[in-house]
Every structure is written in structure tokens, then in C-alpha cells.
Amino acid sequence: MSDGPATFYYDLSSPYAYLAARRVDEVMPVETVWQPIAFGAMIREIGKVPWSLRDDTRAAGQTEIAQRARARGLPDVRWPRGWPAESYSVVPLRAVLHALDEGCGKELSFELYRLEFAEGVALDELDVVIGAAERCGLDGERVAAAVQAPEIKARLRAATDEALHRGVTGVPTVAVGDELFWGDDRIEDAARAAAA
Predict the structure, then answer these.
(1) Alpha-helix residue ranges (DSSP H) falling in 39-102
(2) Which helix or strand (DSSP H or E) is residue 151 part of?
(3) Residues 159, 35: contact at Cβ < 8 Å?
(4) Which CATH number does the domain housing residue 190 bear?
(5) Which terminus of the chain, N or C, has fewer Cβ atoms within 10 Å?
(6) Of 25, 149, 152, 145, which Cα lies nearest the Cα of 101?
């Protein structure tokens, strides 16, 4: 999927990916390609139950995320209604693929993350995604068409399949060559590998 020296795999539902997205370009010493993938489809494929869907780990994970956000000067974390299972949608991921084509994929990713984890707005409504896209300078009607376009749907599936084939099992993951660095706390390790 990507031909850059490093790839940042992320999904908009992941608060750890949100934290990583805020700093990955600063930390990585090489160009890093941003590649959205459908984490929901990935965990179904590999049979993984993430911490956010387990009652015994959710509270601790949310506390850790809030602490990291505070330590990095980010807004207090607010959780969308029904997060993560009830608010999950691939529509914002498709919108980001369109935005990447238009040269503002990172901007839209940041805006969607802000809505989700700083304002607690679920991203499962098309109007919310279109509003975010318009604030990033995109045409709302074109975004609405893009998220239903067969080629965008196919690209998201292909990106997710490629990540699985590469060995990605979670988000965020930074891939440097054949090495995978999973987690917000592994970006510095990825940077060292890229520098080497």
C-alpha cells in the first residue's frame, strides 16, 4: 500500500492512535506515510479482543490515556457515547482516504480525533464527518459521494488486508521496513530503527 520508508497505521476509533498521531511526524526522522485501516475488520479477522472491549481492562486503559493526554498538554479526554463498539464506523476512515487524495488527510484526521476524544462526539453520523471535512476545506458533497464510492471502499479493504499480511495486529503501528512497532509508546523505538 505504501512506498514510503515508514508507515503509520491507524484507526480513528483508537485513543492510543490519537495520542500517537499528535506526535508521530515530530518523532520520526523519515517521511512517514499515514495509512488508515479498519481496526474493527482487523480484530474480527484475527479473533482479537482489544482492551477497550474488555470490562477488566477498559477503565485502566482509559485512565492511562487521560494521563498521557494531560502530560502532553492535550485537552482532557472525553469519551463518545457508546465508545468503542457502538460508535465504530468506517465512514470517517473512507473520508480520510478521500482527504489524503485532496492533500489534507492529516488535517481531517486531527479534526476527527479532536471531535472524538476532546469533545466526546461519536463519528458514526455522516453529518459529523462532513462537517469536520468542510472545516478542513473539503467540499461536503464530494466527501459524501466519496465515502460511498466503490473504489474508496476497496482501498480501505486493501489497506487493511495489506496491514494484516504485513503482520499488523493493532493500532497504532509504525512499520519501518520489516519491523513493526505497535503502540503509542513504541514510536521512539520506530524512530531509532528508521534512523539506523
Answers:
(1) 39-46, 58-71, 91-101
(2) helix 150-166
(3) yes
(4) 3.40.30.10
(5) C
(6) 152
Contact 174, 24 (CB under 8 A): yes
Residue 2 predicted with pLDDT over 60:
no
Look up cell 499515514; give the residue.
34
Q: Give the pLDDT confidence of 131-157 residue by residue, as tens digits.
A: 999 999 999 999 999 999 999 999 999
Q: What is the pLDDT of residues 80-100, one digit of tens each?
A: 998 988 888 999 999 999 999
Residue 191 included in any domain: yes
Q: Return the closest-CA partner of residue 96 out of 54, 138, 125.
A: 138
Per the structure, how many domains does the chain have?
Answer: 1
How many angstroms separate the CA atoms of 188 and 50, rounded? 23
Domain residue limits at 71: 6-195
**Could you give the strand order of the β-sheet that contains 173-176, starting from the edge strand earlier in sequence?**
32-36, 6-10, 173-176, 179-182
170 lies in some domain = yes
Q: Tally DSSP H helices, then E strands, for the chain.
A: 10, 4
67-77: average pLDDT: 97
**Residue 1 placed within a domain:** no
Inside any domain, residue 28: yes
Q: By CB neighbour count within 10 A (0-12 exposed, 13-18 middle, 19+ buried), where does 189 fall?
A: middle
> What is the per-residue pLDDT for 1?
40
